[in-house]
Amino acid sequence: MINCLLAGVGGQGTVLASKLLAGCALNKGLPAHTAETIGMAQRGGCVVSHVRIGENMHSPLIPLRQADLIIGFEPGEAVRSLAYLKKDGTVLVSAHAISPTTASLSNSVYEAAEMIDYLKETGINVIVIDTDSIVKECGTSKILNMALLGAAVSTGILGIGLSDLESIIDEKIPEKFRELNHKAVKLGAQALAGKGA
Q1: What tens digit of pLDDT does each residue of 63-115 get?
Q2: What CATH number does the domain containing 167 carry?
Q3: Distance CA 21, CA 81 (A)
Q4: Which of 9, 92, 137, 181 is the Cys-Cys partner for 127 at CB 3.0 to 4.6 Å?
Q5: Which candidate, 89, 90, 183, places its Cα nearest to that of 128?
Q6: pTM for this predicted structure
Q7: Where do transmembrane segments lie in this chain (predicted)?
Q8: Distance CA 109, CA 106 (A)
Q9: CB 71 within 8 A of CB 131
């Protein structure tokens, strides 16, 4: 069984990303379940999506310390979800921070670098993706989820290939957005390859 947790904030496309991963698995004939735990998502609150692929699932929610991969759409949310990561698991995280409402209200400073440093200091396997450059090349931040999926699938952890992801995009994404989504997936995969992964 493969467990993948996607952690971000409202509006980043974590739920869509989880549905696409599950769709990839189903297209390969593998059982897959998804579930979301959503905070005040429409106001930038945390969104955590669980994706479980494989046999013998008794719940769609990933138990603590069982996630093979955490995809952190936002560094602070990746840190917040660390309790789900298994001992030899991997965190793939966007380098772009979104300041939480609490930081804005208290006039405190929130930096992505601090969160990423914390992740690295824990000794876990951390892969940081420069999503800002991908967003800039694509011209919109709405492809962040696809860039991270492209990188995540390319790790090999999920048992899903890039061709599987490309097929589900063609199946589920409206035609006018497909080319841009394919570009983001490709750039995400290239970003991972550039790290020697």
Answers
A1: 999 999 999 999 999 999 999 999 999 999 999 988 765 555 566 677 889 99
A2: 3.40.920.10
A3: 19
A4: 92
A5: 90
A6: 0.94
A7: none
A8: 9
A9: no
